[in-house]
Amino acid sequence: MKSFMNEFRDFINRGNVLDMAVGIIIGGAFTAIVSSLTSDIISPILGLFGGLNFDKYAFTFGEVTIGYGKFITAVINFLIMALIVFCIVKAMNRATSKLKKEEAVQEAATTKVCPYCKSEISVEATRCPHCTSQLEA
What we know:
By secondary structure, the protein is mostly helical. It has a single domain (2-110), classed as Large-conductance mechanosensitive channel, MscL, domain 1 (Non-ribosomal Peptide Synthetase Peptidyl Carrier Protein, Chain A), CATH 1.10.1200.120. The chain contains three helices and four strands; from the N terminus they run H-H-E-E-H-E-E. The chain has helices at residues 2-13, 15-50, 68-110; strands at residues 59-61, 64-66, 111-113, 120-122. The strands form two sheets. Strands 1-2 form a two-stranded antiparallel sheet. Strands 3-4 form a two-stranded antiparallel ribbon. Strand 3 (111-113) and strand 4 form a beta hairpin. Helix 2 crosses helix 3 (68-110). The chain is elongated. The termini are far apart.
């Protein structure tokens, strides 16, 4: 039981768990912003141009009211959130690939290949440490 508790403590103390907690909190706040954008701005604008304020659409069966307009608004919220997350992930992937390319260029500039034994050696080497061949400057 003690090792289980130690493993659990190590798991909780990892940076990933803290990052995830912060992401969930920020995501909750962001969801409120997108919901407000949809219900307070987008739906009324659609209502102005097409008479389509989705929040007002509902139908009633006896005493039960089914607000399908609110469902349509929730779908619009989801699509906006998905679009924003897609754009953020795409931008992060682009930045990450750019950094990886820069690292690869820097790494390639610090080494070269020996023309005799084909070993990777430092750019500054004048003699190959593997085959001891004299290298051209």
